[in-house]
Amino acid sequence: QLQLVESGGGLVQPGGSLRLSCAASGFTLDYYAIGWFRQAPGKEREGVICISSSGGSTIFPDSVLGRFTISRDNAKNTVYLQMNGLKPEDTGVYYCAASWGGCQDEYDYWGQGTQVTVSS
Questions:
Q1: What is the SS3 string spanning the chain?
Q2: Among 46, 87, 45, which Cα is nearest to 66's?
Q3: In whole angstroms, what is the distance from residue 96 CA to residue 110 CA?
Q4: How far is it, in rounded angstroms, from Cα 18 to Cα 53?
Q5: Distance, CA of 110 to CA of 97 (rounded, Å)
Q6: What's CA 15's distance to the chain center, in Å?
Q7: Burial label, 2 (beta-carbon count in 10 A; 0-12, 13-18, 19+)
Q8: Are strands 3-7 and 18-25 parallel, antiparallel or unpaired?
Q9: Could you tell me the CA-to-CA distances from 46 to 14, 59, 78 in Å, in that order?
Q10: pLDDT tens-digit readout, 21-78
């Protein structure tokens, strides 16, 4: 069974940090671009950041520039999203997804999401 599983979400105070993980099973992530998306309550899902198969990263909203970074460990078949300086507006369900065609192409596999809540 091909699937992506996110973990690492939770409740954090403003200014805090979280590291999300996206682990793949049933396929290898080596040749896929992996994107992180989020959906806040009452809002549409938006792209956050993506890492290509070669390791380059693409950041979608300027709001996370300088605060979020993405990395991949192909040996562990896992991609990580490091989130620092978290703000209440970062609250939402975070999803990872895999794209064979690259960060700007359609995504083939999606995880079930992990909740991130930034609140004091």
A1: CCEEEEECCEEECCCCCEEEEEEEECCCCCCCEEEEEEECCCCCCEEEEEECCCCCEEECCHHHCCCEEEEEEHHHCEEEEEECCCCHHHCEEEEEEEECCCCCCCCCEEECCEEEEECC
A2: 87
A3: 6
A4: 23
A5: 4
A6: 19
A7: exposed
A8: antiparallel
A9: 21, 11, 21
A10: 999 999 899 999 999 999 999 999 999 999 999 988 888 888 899 999 999 999 999 9
| CA pair distance 1, 3, nearest whole angstrom | 6
d(CA 111, CA 35) in angstroms, rounded, equals 11
Task: Work out whether strand 10-12 and strand 114-118 pair parallel, antiparallel, or are unpaired.
Answer: parallel
The Cβ-side half-sphere exposure at 63, using a 13 Å CA radius, reads 11
CA distance 29 to 34: 8
Amino acid 34: pLDDT: 97
Residue 9 near residue 114, CB atoms below 8 Å: yes
CA distance 18 to 81: 8
